[in-house]
Design brief:
Number of domains: 1
CATH superfamily: NAD(P)-binding Rossmann-like Domain
CATH topology: Rossmann fold
Strand order of the largest sheet: 3-2-1-4-5-6-7
Radius of gyration: 17 Å
Length: 260
Protein backbone atom coordinates (compact mmCIF):
# COMPACT_ATOMS: atom_id res chain seq x y z
CA UNK A 1 0.00 0.00 0.00
CA UNK A 2 1.34 3.42 -0.95
CA UNK A 3 -1.23 5.34 1.12
CA UNK A 4 -2.67 4.61 4.54
CA UNK A 5 -5.40 6.18 6.62
CA UNK A 6 -5.74 6.27 10.40
CA UNK A 7 -9.21 6.05 11.89
CA UNK A 8 -9.84 6.75 15.56
CA UNK A 9 -13.03 4.77 15.99
CA UNK A 10 -13.17 2.50 12.95
CA UNK A 11 -15.25 -0.48 14.01
CA UNK A 12 -18.90 0.61 14.14
CA UNK A 13 -21.16 3.33 12.72
CA UNK A 14 -19.52 6.08 10.69
CA UNK A 15 -16.02 4.77 11.35
CA UNK A 16 -16.83 1.29 10.09
CA UNK A 17 -18.52 2.59 6.94
CA UNK A 18 -15.55 4.87 6.27
CA UNK A 19 -13.08 2.03 6.76
CA UNK A 20 -14.94 -0.08 4.19
CA UNK A 21 -15.26 2.79 1.70
CA UNK A 22 -11.62 3.82 1.93
CA UNK A 23 -10.55 0.20 1.69
CA UNK A 24 -12.49 0.01 -1.58
CA UNK A 25 -10.73 3.21 -2.66
CA UNK A 26 -7.42 1.40 -2.29
CA UNK A 27 -6.15 2.74 1.02
CA UNK A 28 -4.56 0.64 3.72
CA UNK A 29 -6.53 0.89 6.96
CA UNK A 30 -5.13 1.51 10.43
CA UNK A 31 -7.84 1.84 13.04
CA UNK A 32 -8.36 2.06 16.77
CA UNK A 33 -11.49 0.95 18.57
CA UNK A 34 -12.40 0.32 22.18
CA UNK A 35 -15.16 -2.25 22.07
CA UNK A 36 -16.52 -4.66 24.63
CA UNK A 37 -19.51 -7.01 24.74
CA UNK A 38 -21.99 -6.77 21.87
CA UNK A 39 -20.04 -3.95 20.21
CA UNK A 40 -17.00 -6.21 20.00
CA UNK A 41 -18.97 -8.68 17.87
CA UNK A 42 -19.85 -5.89 15.45
CA UNK A 43 -16.22 -4.80 15.41
CA UNK A 44 -15.05 -8.28 14.49
CA UNK A 45 -17.44 -8.35 11.53
CA UNK A 46 -16.08 -4.98 10.35
CA UNK A 47 -12.47 -6.08 10.70
CA UNK A 48 -13.07 -9.28 8.74
CA UNK A 49 -14.72 -7.31 5.93
CA UNK A 50 -12.01 -4.62 5.79
CA UNK A 51 -9.30 -7.26 5.88
CA UNK A 52 -10.98 -9.00 2.96
CA UNK A 53 -11.27 -5.80 0.89
CA UNK A 54 -7.68 -4.70 1.55
CA UNK A 55 -6.29 -8.21 1.16
CA UNK A 56 -4.73 -8.05 4.59
CA UNK A 57 -3.61 -4.42 4.48
CA UNK A 58 -5.43 -3.44 7.63
CA UNK A 59 -4.44 -3.15 11.28
CA UNK A 60 -7.02 -2.80 14.05
CA UNK A 61 -6.07 -2.11 17.65
CA UNK A 62 -8.67 -2.62 20.40
CA UNK A 63 -7.40 -0.14 22.97
CA UNK A 64 -8.03 3.36 24.34
CA UNK A 65 -6.92 5.78 21.62
CA UNK A 66 -7.59 8.73 23.93
CA UNK A 67 -4.65 7.75 26.13
CA UNK A 68 -1.36 9.60 25.59
CA UNK A 69 0.48 6.46 26.60
CA UNK A 70 -1.27 4.56 23.81
CA UNK A 71 -0.43 7.30 21.30
CA UNK A 72 3.25 7.14 22.21
CA UNK A 73 3.22 3.35 22.08
CA UNK A 74 1.50 2.94 18.72
CA UNK A 75 2.76 5.85 16.62
CA UNK A 76 6.15 4.14 16.05
CA UNK A 77 4.21 1.04 14.96
CA UNK A 78 2.10 3.14 12.61
CA UNK A 79 5.25 4.58 11.09
CA UNK A 80 6.58 1.06 10.58
CA UNK A 81 3.33 -0.05 8.95
CA UNK A 82 3.42 2.85 6.47
CA UNK A 83 7.17 2.42 5.89
CA UNK A 84 7.59 6.00 7.03
CA UNK A 85 5.14 7.40 4.47
CA UNK A 86 2.77 10.11 5.76
CA UNK A 87 -0.85 9.22 6.38
CA UNK A 88 -3.46 10.40 3.91
CA UNK A 89 -6.02 10.83 6.67
CA UNK A 90 -6.42 11.19 10.41
CA UNK A 91 -10.12 10.71 11.15
CA UNK A 92 -11.65 11.28 14.56
CA UNK A 93 -14.80 9.16 14.83
CA UNK A 94 -14.77 8.30 18.53
CA UNK A 95 -18.28 8.27 20.01
CA UNK A 96 -17.64 7.78 23.71
CA UNK A 97 -18.78 10.25 26.32
CA UNK A 98 -21.39 11.06 28.92
CA UNK A 99 -24.92 11.76 27.73
CA UNK A 100 -26.87 13.48 30.48
CA UNK A 101 -28.24 16.91 31.29
CA UNK A 102 -26.48 19.69 33.19
CA UNK A 103 -29.31 19.82 35.75
CA UNK A 104 -31.88 17.38 37.14
CA UNK A 105 -31.72 14.09 38.99
CA UNK A 106 -28.36 13.07 37.47
CA UNK A 107 -26.52 16.28 36.54
CA UNK A 108 -23.22 15.89 34.73
CA UNK A 109 -20.16 15.89 36.99
CA UNK A 110 -16.83 17.61 36.39
CA UNK A 111 -15.18 14.23 35.89
CA UNK A 112 -17.74 13.28 33.23
CA UNK A 113 -17.40 16.63 31.45
CA UNK A 114 -13.62 16.48 31.46
CA UNK A 115 -13.64 12.93 30.10
CA UNK A 116 -16.17 13.69 27.36
CA UNK A 117 -14.44 16.84 26.14
CA UNK A 118 -11.06 15.08 26.20
CA UNK A 119 -12.15 11.95 24.34
CA UNK A 120 -14.55 13.50 21.83
CA UNK A 121 -12.85 16.86 21.43
CA UNK A 122 -9.24 17.34 22.49
CA UNK A 123 -7.95 13.93 21.42
CA UNK A 124 -7.81 14.91 17.76
CA UNK A 125 -5.32 17.66 18.64
CA UNK A 126 -2.96 15.40 20.56
CA UNK A 127 -2.94 12.80 17.80
CA UNK A 128 -2.34 15.47 15.15
CA UNK A 129 0.52 16.99 17.16
CA UNK A 130 2.28 13.66 17.64
CA UNK A 131 1.74 12.48 14.06
CA UNK A 132 3.03 15.77 12.69
CA UNK A 133 6.11 15.57 14.92
CA UNK A 134 6.70 12.03 13.61
CA UNK A 135 6.46 13.24 9.98
CA UNK A 136 3.30 11.21 9.51
CA UNK A 137 1.28 14.23 8.38
CA UNK A 138 2.55 16.18 5.38
CA UNK A 139 1.43 17.74 2.08
CA UNK A 140 -1.88 16.22 1.01
CA UNK A 141 -2.74 14.81 4.43
CA UNK A 142 -6.23 15.39 5.79
CA UNK A 143 -7.39 15.81 9.37
CA UNK A 144 -11.14 15.24 9.66
CA UNK A 145 -13.48 15.10 12.64
CA UNK A 146 -17.17 14.22 12.79
CA UNK A 147 -19.59 16.72 14.29
CA UNK A 148 -23.35 17.19 14.51
CA UNK A 149 -26.00 19.89 14.74
CA UNK A 150 -25.75 19.49 18.50
CA UNK A 151 -22.84 21.90 18.14
CA UNK A 152 -25.36 24.76 18.00
CA UNK A 153 -28.68 23.26 19.14
CA UNK A 154 -29.59 22.37 22.71
CA UNK A 155 -30.84 18.78 22.99
CA UNK A 156 -31.96 16.58 25.85
CA UNK A 157 -28.98 14.70 27.28
CA UNK A 158 -26.56 16.03 24.67
CA UNK A 159 -24.92 18.86 26.64
CA UNK A 160 -21.53 17.26 27.42
CA UNK A 161 -21.14 15.91 23.88
CA UNK A 162 -22.20 19.27 22.44
CA UNK A 163 -19.40 21.00 24.36
CA UNK A 164 -16.93 18.38 23.08
CA UNK A 165 -18.05 18.84 19.47
CA UNK A 166 -17.70 22.63 19.67
CA UNK A 167 -14.21 22.17 21.12
CA UNK A 168 -13.29 19.75 18.35
CA UNK A 169 -14.49 22.15 15.65
CA UNK A 170 -12.35 24.93 17.11
CA UNK A 171 -9.35 22.60 17.27
CA UNK A 172 -9.85 21.48 13.67
CA UNK A 173 -10.14 25.06 12.49
CA UNK A 174 -6.89 25.94 14.25
CA UNK A 175 -5.08 22.84 12.95
CA UNK A 176 -6.01 23.75 9.39
CA UNK A 177 -4.98 27.36 9.93
CA UNK A 178 -1.57 26.42 11.36
CA UNK A 179 -0.74 23.47 9.11
CA UNK A 180 -2.24 24.77 5.88
CA UNK A 181 1.15 26.16 4.87
CA UNK A 182 2.42 22.58 4.80
CA UNK A 183 -0.39 21.46 2.50
CA UNK A 184 -2.22 19.73 5.36
CA UNK A 185 -5.94 20.47 5.61
CA UNK A 186 -8.36 20.05 8.51
CA UNK A 187 -12.14 20.00 8.27
CA UNK A 188 -15.20 18.75 10.13
CA UNK A 189 -17.97 16.72 8.52
CA UNK A 190 -21.40 17.38 10.02
CA UNK A 191 -23.67 14.39 9.66
CA UNK A 192 -27.41 14.54 10.14
CA UNK A 193 -29.26 12.36 12.63
CA UNK A 194 -28.06 8.84 11.85
CA UNK A 195 -29.60 5.58 13.16
CA UNK A 196 -26.46 4.11 14.72
CA UNK A 197 -25.69 2.41 18.00
CA UNK A 198 -24.31 5.72 19.29
CA UNK A 199 -27.67 7.43 18.74
CA UNK A 200 -29.41 4.96 21.05
CA UNK A 201 -27.03 6.01 23.84
CA UNK A 202 -27.94 9.70 23.58
CA UNK A 203 -31.65 9.49 24.32
CA UNK A 204 -34.39 6.98 25.05
CA UNK A 205 -36.45 8.83 22.45
CA UNK A 206 -34.10 8.00 19.59
CA UNK A 207 -36.89 6.39 17.56
CA UNK A 208 -38.87 9.64 17.78
CA UNK A 209 -35.76 11.53 16.67
CA UNK A 210 -35.55 9.35 13.58
CA UNK A 211 -39.19 9.83 12.62
CA UNK A 212 -39.01 13.57 13.26
CA UNK A 213 -35.86 13.81 11.16
CA UNK A 214 -37.48 12.07 8.21
CA UNK A 215 -40.26 14.64 8.27
CA UNK A 216 -38.03 17.71 8.43
CA UNK A 217 -35.21 16.53 6.17
CA UNK A 218 -35.62 17.99 2.64
CA UNK A 219 -34.71 14.58 1.21
CA UNK A 220 -37.17 12.69 3.40
CA UNK A 221 -34.75 10.35 5.13
CA UNK A 222 -32.06 10.16 7.77
CA UNK A 223 -28.33 10.23 7.11
CA UNK A 224 -26.54 6.90 6.72
CA UNK A 225 -22.97 6.02 7.72
CA UNK A 226 -22.36 5.35 4.03
CA UNK A 227 -23.33 8.95 3.20
CA UNK A 228 -20.65 10.17 5.58
CA UNK A 229 -18.10 7.68 4.28
CA UNK A 230 -18.71 8.87 0.74
CA UNK A 231 -18.17 12.49 1.76
CA UNK A 232 -14.88 11.64 3.44
CA UNK A 233 -13.83 9.70 0.35
CA UNK A 234 -14.47 12.80 -1.76
CA UNK A 235 -12.48 15.00 0.61
CA UNK A 236 -9.42 12.79 0.12
CA UNK A 237 -9.29 13.49 -3.61
CA UNK A 238 -6.72 16.01 -4.95
CA UNK A 239 -9.60 18.20 -6.11
CA UNK A 240 -10.35 18.88 -2.41
CA UNK A 241 -6.85 20.17 -1.63
CA UNK A 242 -8.11 23.73 -1.12
CA UNK A 243 -10.97 22.89 1.26
CA UNK A 244 -9.67 23.83 4.69
CA UNK A 245 -10.87 25.03 8.13
CA UNK A 246 -14.46 24.27 7.14
CA UNK A 247 -17.54 22.35 8.20
CA UNK A 248 -18.84 20.12 5.40
CA UNK A 249 -22.53 19.30 5.76
CA UNK A 250 -23.57 15.75 4.91
CA UNK A 251 -27.21 15.73 5.96
CA UNK A 252 -29.39 16.32 2.92
CA UNK A 253 -30.05 19.90 4.04
CA UNK A 254 -31.29 18.86 7.48
CA UNK A 255 -29.43 21.66 9.27
CA UNK A 256 -31.51 24.18 7.32
CA UNK A 257 -34.83 22.72 8.42
CA UNK A 258 -35.26 23.59 12.09
CA UNK A 259 -34.63 21.60 15.25
CA UNK A 260 -35.88 18.21 16.35
Amino acid sequence: MDEWVLLLGGSTGHGAATAKQLAKDGYGIIAFHFDRGEAKKIAVETIIKVDEITKGHCHYFNTNAASEEIMDKYIPQIKEITSGQPLKLLLHSIAFGTTTNFFGSKPVTQKQMDMTVHVMGNTILYWAQKLFAADLLSKGSRVIGLTSEGNYLAMDGYGPVSVAKVAMEAIIRQIGWELGKYGITANAVQAGVTPTRALTKITENWKDWIESTKKRNPMGRTTTPEDVAGTISLLLKPEADFINCSIIYCDGGEHRSGSI
